[in-house]
Structures are given as structure tokens and as C-alpha cells.
Amino acid sequence: xxxxxxxxxxxxxxxxxxxxxxxxxxxxxxxxxxxxxxxxxxxxxxxxxxxxxxxxxxxxxxxxxxxxxxxxxxxxxxxxxxxxxxxxxxxxxxxxxxxxxxxxxxxxxxxxxxx
Length: 115
Known about the structure:
By secondary structure, the protein is mostly helical. The protein has helices spanning 15-50, 69-84, 100-108, and strands spanning 87-90, 95-97. A two-stranded antiparallel ribbon has the order 1-2. The longest helix has 36 residues, at 15-50. The radius of gyration is 37 Å and the shape is elongated. 0% of the residues are buried.
């Protein structure tokens, strides 16, 4: 019988293969950074182009309130009133506003709006 030759890899590492692999990784990272840089700056350029150059002036005297507490309280009171009282929305069509608690209770009982 003929003896077969033993086939095996050499024990040494290929520095040439390692260098090519490292170069591929470096090129991929550099390419990714260039693409990201271009996309970011392109987006920033688009945003600058979309922004109005000369914004129109606001008509009239505009000033900030030093203490808007009264206006906020009045706004909240109005919204609370709308949620908690009865009122006609459209009398001809029979549409009314009812307190929110009552409306939720009616829906929970399955008494939806009648049309």
C-alpha cells in the first residue's frame, strides 16, 4: 500500500493575510466616517436652506407677562367648567354637553350616544 502524504496547515501565521484584513477594516471604518460626515453636513445644509432668511416682524407690541399665574388659573378654570357642567352644543340637532364623570359612567354601563 502506498503511504498517503499528511496534509496540514503550517504552524506559522500569515502576516500578509493579517495585514490585508486590517487594511480592509481600516478602509471600511474610514468609508463609514466619510459617508456619515457627508450625510450630517448635507442635512445641516438642507436645514439652513429651509430656514427663512428674514423672518417677518411681529405686528404690534409683544411683551412677556412677568406673572402669568392669573391667566393660567383662568384658563384651567374655564376648562374645568367645560368638563363639569351641562350645556347645549346644538339645540336643533339635540346635542348636549354633559359632565365628564356622568359621560364615563354612562359609557361604562353601555349607554352610548344615541344617533
